[in-house]
Amino acid sequence: MPEVRELVPRAADPSPGSSYYRRHIFFCLNQREGGQACCAAAGAQQAFDHCKQRVKELGLASPGQVRVNKAGCLDRCAAGPVAVVYPEAVWYSYVDLSDVDEIVESHLRDGRVVERLLTPAHLGR
C-alpha cells in the first residue's frame, strides 16, 4: 500500500477549503444503553486521552499538524472501538494503548497506514 503522503498532499499552503490540520483523528466515544456494543464500553475514553498525550509528547499538537477529537457515534459499533484519520478517511479498530501508539507513530507522525489495524469495510453497527 502506498504511503499516505502519496495519496493526499500536505496542507502546507492553506488555500480556501483546505484542511487546517495535516491530519485529524476522531475517536468514537459513544455510549449505548442496554449492554449494546459501543466504543465507550471498550475503553475509548482512555485511548482518546492517551492519543492526545502522545501527540503532545511528539510535538505534533501545534497548528497545521495533528488534531485529536472526540466524536459521537461513528456507526461502526461492531468493529469498535474505532477511530478515523482524515483527510485520508482511514478507519482503525484498536484493542489497547499499544495499538494507539502505533497509529500515532506510524500514521499521524510518519504517514504510514497501519494495515493490521484497519477496520474491515463490511463492519457497521
From TrEMBL:
<dbReference type="Pfam" id="PF01257">
    <property type="entry name" value="2Fe-2S_thioredx"/>
</dbReference>
<protein>
    <submittedName>
        <fullName>(2Fe-2S) ferredoxin</fullName>
    </submittedName>
</protein>
<dbReference type="InterPro" id="IPR036249">
    <property type="entry name" value="Thioredoxin-like_sf"/>
</dbReference>
